[in-house]
Structures are given as structure tokens and as C-alpha cells.
Design goal:
This protein is α+β, with helices and mostly antiparallel strands. It has a domain at about 10-60 and about 95-120. It has helices at about 25-35, 95-105; strands spanning about 5-15, 40-50, 55-65, 65-75, 80-90, 105-115. A six-stranded antiparallel beta sheet has the order 2-3-4-5-1-6, covered by helices on one side. A hairpin with a 2-residue loop joins strand 3 and strand 4 (about 65-75). Helix 1 runs antiparallel to helix 2 (about 95-105). The protein is globular, with a radius of gyration of 15 Å.
Length: about 120
């Protein structure tokens, strides 16, 4: 099997942003995302709430058999901010990730970059 090395970086603005009381909602969403992109959960998902002014929000991460998925949520701003990082050595459908996010949360704006790390990256020192 040839490895694929795909990396999705996604930023979204959301209404009704999940907060400290919604950790179970975010955990359920992460599990749904993993299933929707046909990945196998290796460990987690693990979740924490940071209560630091200026950086208040949720971090949720999961190790998948082919790498990782990490979600950071900042709930202090209005709208709330999501930053999602999906890295996998197995191909996945970007549109499935966007659809899952849009169905799980009230997304009002979404931007993303998709890196195909098979094509090579320049090392900047």
C-alpha cells in the first residue's frame, strides 16, 4: 500500500459556538467525523477546556490509524472560531469533512487549505 500524506487545514466561524458545558457534543461530533471520512480510531478522542482569558475554548484530538485529527474552538469571540487539522496517510474526501462540520454546527464562514504532502515541501530554515 502506498501512503498518501493528505493534510487539511480548516478555519470556520460559527454561531452558537460550543462552550465548556458542550464537551460531550464536541466528542460525539469528532467520532461522527472520523466515521464519515472512513478512518479508524486508534486512541481518544480526548477533550479539554481551557479557561484562560483570550484563549478560552475547547481542544479535542483523536489519533487515527493513519495519523491525527485536532480541533480547536475559541468560544469567546462572536462568532466562535473553529480550527480543524486533519492529517492522514490515507486519502479522504474534503467535502465530507466540510459537510460534517456544517451539519454539526451553525457555520457562517469556512475557509480551508489542502496540502498534498506527496508532492514535496521545501524546508525553510
Amino acid at each position: 500500500m502506498e501512503l498518501d500524506h493528505k493534510h487539511l487545514l480548516l478555519r470556520a466561524e460559527v454561531n452558537n459556538c460550543p462552550s465548556e458545558k458542550d464537551l460531550s457534543v464536541v466528542l460525539s461530533w469528532m467520532k461522527k467525523l472520523i466515521r464519515s471520512i472512513d478512518m479508524k480510531l486508534l486512541q481518544g478522542p480526548n477533550i479539554s477546556y481551557v479557561d484562560q482569558p483570550g484563549n478560552r475554548g475547547i481542544t479535542c484530538m483523536a489519533l487515527i490509524e493513519t495519523s491525527h485529527i485536532v480541533l480547536h474552538i475559541w468560544d469567546e469571540s462572536d462568532p466562535g472560531i473553529f480550527q480543524l487539522d486533519v492529517y492522514s496517510c490515507k486519502s479522504f474526501d474534503i467535502n465530507s469533512v466540510i459537510k460534517c462540520l456544517s451539519q454539526g454546527f451553525e457555520v457562517i464562514k469556512i475557509e480551508h487549505k489542502f496540502l498534498d504532502r506527496n508532492t514535496g515541501l521545501k524546508l525553510i530554515t
